[in-house]
Amino acid sequence: MANESRPCPCDIGDRFDYGGRGQEVQVGHIKAYICKPSASTDKAVIVIHDIFGWQLPNTRYIADMLTTNGYIAICPDFFVGQEAWKPSNDWASFNDWVKTRDAGKIDKEVDVVIKYLKDQCGAEKIGVIGFCWGGAAVQHLMLKNLHLKTGVSLYGVISRFEDKHSLLHPTFFIFGEKDNIIPLEQVTLLEQKLKQNCKVDYEIKIYPGQTHGFVHRKREDINPQDKPFIEEGRKDMINWLNKYL
Predict the structure, then answer these.
(1) Per 3-state DSSP, what percentage of the chain is helix, strand, and coil (rounded to 5)?
(2) Which residue among the candidates 132, 140, 216, 226 is catalytic per the annotation?
(3) 102 annotated active-site
(4) Where is this protein localized, as stated in its record (predicted)?
(5) CA separation for the pair 117, 123 (Å, rounded)
(6) pTM
(7) Which domains, ranges and CATH numbers included, belong to the chain?
(8) For residue range 24-40, what is the model confidence (pLDDT) as tens digits?
(9) Interatomic CA distance for residues 71 and 93, integer angstroms
């Protein structure tokens, strides 16, 4: 039962009826959603879901968007069968819930997915994007995974990896100005630390007036004034991937 005094601050999105263009497959010990372009390509993007899990229609919509831009897109279940968060859950229990789903402990799953993309899909250049929980996971992977070429972290929860900034690969960070989960002071500190420690290309961009989840979960039908920023965020994400993959 939801805690009315502490409701979930996340909007689940607007694509409830979106079925997806791809298919679900078994990749080693985990399930995944995969979508492939009609023309063959050696470029692939791993999509790391947010707290709402790998089956969220809005996340699959973004995976399909990557495919229309020429990429193999795969969204694995990084919760490995554990239940995704529901907006009706008691937000007061979130910290206990997320402790059992550590964004910094997905290396085994990522290795399995990379092997699948290389062996089964012919991928040679692989990037990663992630939202919220998945955005934190992207930062983790950019710090240690040698097999990935680039990453885009969308409103990744900075506090998960606030002491680590020596990125191995070009990384693009997307944040919303009005994000009540990630204060701008944290973004400023991240920028300072990257400037001091990072040897590869990176960019941090803050989108005016935008709240948490805006690129993939903003309700366009309710907030038409936000549509230009939603589209800009998606375009920036694609442009970054195009540049480095």
Answers:
(1) 35, 20, 45
(2) 132
(3) no
(4) Cytoplasm, Cytosol
(5) 5
(6) 0.94
(7) 9-244 (3.40.50.1820)
(8) 999 999 999 999 999 99
(9) 37
d(C-alpha 91, C-alpha 85), whole Å: 10
Residue 122 main-chain phi, psi, to 5 deg: 70, 20
Helix (H, G, I), strand (E, B) or coil at 44: strand
- For residues 49 and 58, give the distance between their C-alpha atoms in angstroms, rounded to a whole number: 10
Select which of 50, 64, 179, 236 is catalytic.
179
Q: Give me the catalytic one of 169, 212, 216, 226.
A: 212
| 132 vs 180: CA distance, rounded Å | 12
Instruction: Verify whether residue 111 is a known catalytic residue.
Output: no
Spans in the chain with pLDDT lower than 50: 1-5
Query: In 3D, which of 185, 132, 101, 129 has the Cα closest to residue 11?
Result: 132
Angle between helices 227-244 and 57-68 (to 10 degrees): 50
**Residue 1 · residue 42 · CB < 8 Å:** no
Q: Would the CA dihedral through 230, 184, 154, 180 be positive or negative?
A: negative
